[in-house]
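Box S1 | Example of a co-folding query
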Amino acid sequence: MQCEEFEDRLNAVLDKRKRPETDAELQLHCETCPDCRHLAATYGRLLDGFYALATPHPPSDMAMRVLADLQPKVSPRRRWAVAAVALTTGALATAAGLLFAVVPLLRSHSQVPSTVLPTLATVASSDQSGPGSRGARIPLTGRSLESLELNQLPIVPELLALRTADEDPYAGLAKETGQSLATVVLYVPGIGGSKGIVDASGKDEPAWAAQMSEGLKPITDSVAETVNLLLRALPTVVSDSRS
Amino acid sequence: MSDNVRELVHQCLRGDQSAMVELVSNFRGQVFGLCYRMLRHRQDAEDVTQESFVRALRSLGTWDQQREFLPWLLAIAGNRCRTLLAIRMHQPATSSLVEHLSDDAVGIRDAENLAEEVDLALSHLRAEYRQAFLLFHQHEMSYSQISTTLDCPLGTVKTWVHRARRELIARLKDRGVLQESRHAVRRV
Ligand SMILES: [Zn+2]
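Box S1 (continued) | Returned holo structure for zinc ion
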């Protein structure tokens, strides 16, 4: 082998992921040629140096960062709507579950006057100024609801963070805020009455918002009825949880 | 590619977030390793790794399942790295842009500094040479896989890796890093 061929041969050996000294032909040439022996040594040093390079560990939260990036970027208004759909679905499940659980109680408490607590219909009909005014302007006449601090309830977009595949968002919010489940179900938008969560009468309201509001009506009415039943059936339980 | 990865990809395509987490966790080391060595900057490498996974997951449907997954994934990461390197070239050099060695390290001979010198020399290679070199030596990919990843002929990839080695050695010699072995050889 000639010196001119040496480096190509050397690269071919490295391409097979072998060390230069393992190749008999290279070895033979090196025995008589100091320059090529030096060249082989430099290649060896290069790879020694390269394989000694330490690569830091990737961040352990990389998967979470990626998932966060994958979440659709939506406008705050749209997030209200998306949250409402998710929450209403959760509310239905929660309310239905509670209803089954309290059917016996419902029977035994059938004598409780309905005036003890405001019905959801009362709350809903008083809320005429749209989602922006949620909570504070609702006239609360029921004794057990007077102590509620509605402005402490998180706004809807934040609820999305509580929502997981396995967790009911209403239950999550109740846990998060320390409020009773019934309170959360009552005051979270999406079950707020006939106007729904989006005021479709606004001039600038997009078509999808109006559709969303319309589409939610049957669900909200259904949940409203369910929660009213629960509140009438369990006044003492709600009072106890507030005291 | 193992059926496990293929199944994982199918789950991701169905929107299974736990599968996405597993996919990222399985490959984050390789993607980050390439990005870090290409960019020589931890924060940039993290950002590009993250961006690469987001792009990959968003375009999982375009991945040809007859091909291997990792070369496809590293192709996305490599492209992002090269884009960032190209942007850097048009920016005024700043000391914080790249975490580099000081240039007064001539004559350093111990193993740790040899590694640092190799790292520095890598940063002076053309991006294509550097990526091909890293895919071959760091990720131990075959020339065929690298050819797929870089979407160029196998012969070109081979040439790039060989040129990368030659240029690295030339730079290390210029820096005096390989002086010791030269003397050692000459003393023989
Ligand atoms: Zn020779």
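The pocket of zinc ion is lined by residues A 3, 6, 29, 33, 35-36 (CB under 6 Å). The CA atoms of residues 42 and 48 of chain A lie 10 Å apart.
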